[in-house]
Specification:
The chain is an all-alpha fold. It has six helices and no strands. Helix 2 runs antiparallel to helix 5.
Length: 176
């Protein structure tokens, strides 16, 4: 897939997937109405805004990496030609899902809508089910031993302390 087409597809998917999951649905659930449940809530609002900002930055970086490194999109209908293992993917296999979770939790804290934490839990379970039931088997089938080595070395949900360095025969330039 050409980089321009991959970038356009990724931009559309960015709006449709995380834009809906972390934007439209939380807005629909909360109306972005700010509640004042507890007097000590102000510091948590600051944490919430920081989580939103960090989540958006991680998400944008991960989407860009799919285009630049993988020559594809995060969308299952237009997947990458190569396995994406650089950038934040050297620390954790699922930075996009973690970023979306950070955004939703951040929104809950920023507006004081604790119901959004319940929504974040439902989304987390859905992400986990999708990764285990579809994404991991698909990547294993497409990338074989390269993906298996990556999966053994890089945790799915809790980042490594140090970046993973693939062996020369498993790096992203030769293996995908």
């Amino acid at each position: 897939m050409r980089k321009g087409l991959a970038a356009a597809g990724s931009a559309v998917f960015f709006v449709l997937a995380p834009g809906v999951v972390a934007g439209v649905i939380p807005w629909w659930l909360s109306g972005w109405r700010i509640d004042e449940p507890l007097p000590y809530w102000a510091p948590l609002r600051v944490v919430g805004v920081a989580l939103i900002g960090a989540g958006v930055l991680v998400l944008a970086q991960a989407f860009a990496r799919f285009v630049a490194e993988g020559s594809g999109t995060p969308a299952p209908i237009a997947p990458t030609a190569r396995l994406v293992v650089g950038g934040l993917y050297r620390y954790v296999r699922n930075p996009m899902y973690l970023a979306v979770e950070a955004i939703i939790v951040g929104e809950a804290l920023a507006v004081g809508q604790l119901g959004l934490l319940l929504y974040a839990s439902v989304v987390a379970l859905a992400f986990f089910g999708f990764v285990r039931g579809y994404e991991e088997p698909t990547l294993r089938e497409k990338f074989g031993p390269t993906y298996d080595a990556y999966r053994r070395a890089v945790p799915g949900w809790w980042p490594r302390r140090h970046p993973w360095e693939p062996a020369s025969d498993e790096d992203s330039s030769s293996a995908g």
